[in-house]
Specification:
Its main location: membrane. This protein has 21 helices and eight strands. By secondary structure, it is α/β, with parallel strands linked by helices. It has two domains: 296 residues, no CATH class; 80 residues, 2-Layer Sandwich (Transcription Regulator spoIIAA). It has a four-stranded mixed beta sheet, with helices on one face. A two-stranded antiparallel sheet has the order 1-2. The longest helix has 37 residues. The two termini are 26 Å apart.
């Protein structure tokens, strides 16, 4: 534990750590801002919403959600996983204002989920699936950003589905990009990757964040290549709305149509958004906690409440639904972010860039931003992670690999669902194989077998116990010991008693020890009661 000077007051210590964290959070916030900017615009474009809607969602996700969230590293904003739902909802509801009402109601539903403590579901995602999801996100970043690094930007930044909205898939998009790449984009992306890898090795120079240097390089590259025969095209650049003043800025906001409160379709859309956004948020929070270098645990129920407040705010001013986003959050971790101030600052940078420097932001080529995401993706899917999961055993490695493949070939939620099913299969398989312990001894020509049941014997163990009992040889003494068992399922009890009744036909003598005729499920003490007992 780090020692502090006893002469320091509490205020001095607080200031010391605040300053220490700010030296990491400020540079990290710039990286997250640069990553979030094209993602906010691309997701808005793919959702059929105004570009401003994507930006305002990112601003609210940074400033509002981070302020209420208990997570120190999570970054919220518009999510690619919701684009299909949003696009369909805007079309089916008939107007963007009606859709905004659904976003507000989705936030209300998330508030309710947080208050009833539905966030605890996030604690039940297996670590192998979460690790697989992180690795899959890393591979997805690499595969999806390669076309942008090559200067082919027909698809929006942030489309993480295998089948893209431009009728390409992940692999055909790369093949197409290789056939008509841009020399300017390739040069900028290669130089950017070199800076991102080499610059941090020089500790004295690392005071200036490598991603910031990459963006400066991109702006100068745009100016240099503009005077050559292969300049950057408009579709290869960042695009944000240019506003001439604060009054024009206020004119970009849109209010929800509250006259549609009686429209039942609005509630269906709101519930769908709330469930999908909450699941994606819980997955992201669990994943970010795993790569947090300080290993903090985020309160999931509080996160749902923060997301609810964010979506209510976003819907009220014309924004899109939001979630905690793994790409932005991973960039935050890998850039050295330490507290929620990084996410809050990133929201401020989005706002300030929109108000004061839109022309400069629009000079940044997407290829240099793609380089930042390529390096982030590599850090998430490093080879050492695969080795680590392999040494953990097949019951961890198989769900890990299946999750990666499923996410790559579908999308985040579907891939995680497949990984969960495989993980549950291994869980049940392990549970079925461990319902008892047994010991065999010999007395002359007769064998004695003692079967000691486990603490919990469920109906899933019935088949394994039945197989063992059926294969016991004739003329054997069998003792079935239930002294350790707190609960034995009625189906298993029936199997044991039936075996005892019929075993004499094989010359088998069965003795039951400490086995009751009926068991009740042991009541669990509430977690808050346990905490109270510990604190006494």
């Amino acid at each position: 534990m780090q020692k502090t000077n006893p002469a320091f007051s509490g205020t001095d210590i607080k200031k010391y750590f605040l300053k220490k964290n700010l030296t990491k959070d400020l540079p990290s916030s710039i990286v997250v801002f640069l990553v979030a900017l094209p993602l906010c615009l691309g997701i808005a474009l793919a959702s059929g919403a105004p570009l401003f809607a994507g930006l305002i969602t990112g601003i609210i996700g940074g400033i509002v959600v981070a302020s209420f969230s208990g997570s120190q590293l999570s970054v919220s904003g518009p999510a690619a996983g919701l684009t299909v739902i949003v696009l369909g909802a805007i079309t089916s509801l008939g107007s963007y204002q009606t859709f905004l009402l659904a976003v507000v109601l989705a936030g209300v539903f998330q508030l309710i989920l947080g208050l009833v403590k539905a966030g605890t579901i996030g604690n039940y995602f297996p670590s192998s699936v979460i690790e697989g999801m992180l690795a899959a996100i890393g591979l997805t970043l690499i595969l999806k950003q390669l076309p942008h690094a090559l200067g082919v930007d027909s698809d929006f930044n942030g489309d993480d589905s295998f089948f893209q909205q431009d009728h390409e898939n992940t692999f055909t998009a790369i093949t197409a990009a290789l056939s008509h790449f841009s020399l300017a984009a390739v040069v900028i992306s290669l130089l950017s990757i070199a800076i991102l890898i080499i610059w941090p090795r020089f500790k004295k120079l690392a005071i200036v964040p490598a991603p910031l240097l990459v963006v400066v390089l991109g702006v100068f590259g745009t100016l240099i290549f503009a005077n050559t025969s292969f300049p950057f095209r408009a579709d290869q650049m960042v695009k944000i709305p240019v506003v001439s003043g604060f009054g024009e800025f206020l004119g970009l906001f849109t209010m929800p149509d509250f006259s549609q409160l009686a429209n039942k379709n609005v509630y269906f859309v709101a519930f769908t958004i709330a469930i999908v956004a909450s699941l994606e948020t819980l997955l992201s929070i669990e994943a970010i906690d795993k790569i947090d270098p300080i290993k903090r645990v985020s309160p999931t129920n509080r996160e749902l409440i923060a997301q609810g407040i964010g979506n209510i705010t976003s819907g009220m001013v014309g924004g899109l639904p939001m979630t905690s986003v793994i790409v932005r959050s991973s960039a935050n971790v890998n850039s050295g972010g330490r507290t929620k101030m990084s996410a809050i600052f990133h929201g401020c940078w989005l706002l300030l860039s929109l108000l004061f420097i839109p022309q400069i932001i629009n000079m940044i080529p997407l290829s240099c931003l793609a380089a930042i995401l390529l390096v982030t993706g590599y850090k998430l899917t490093r080879i050492g992670l695969f080795q680590h999961m392999y040494y953990k055993g097949w019951d961890q490695f198989v769900p890990f690999v299946v999750t990666i493949v499923a996410v790559l070939l579908s999308d985040l939620l579907k891939g995680v669902a497949v990984g969960l099913l495989v993980s549950i299969f291994y869980l049940l398989r392990t549970n079925m194989r461990n319902p008892y312990f047994y010991r065999i001894t010999n007395e002359g020509d007769k064998k004695n077998i003692r079967i000691k049941l486990a603490e919990e014997v469920s109906f899933l163990n019935k088949a394994a116990i039945q197989v063992v009992l059926t294969n016991i040889p004739r003329e054997t003494n069998v003792v079935i010991d239930g002294s350790n068992a707190r609960y034995i399922d009625p189906d298993v009890l029936e199997t044991i008693f039936n075996y005892k009744h019929n075993a004499y036909t094989k010359g088998i003598i069965v003795t039951l020890e400490n086995i009751q005729k009926h068991y009740t499920v042991p009541k669990l003490r509430k977690s808050n009661k346990i905490v109270e007992d510990i604190n006494k």
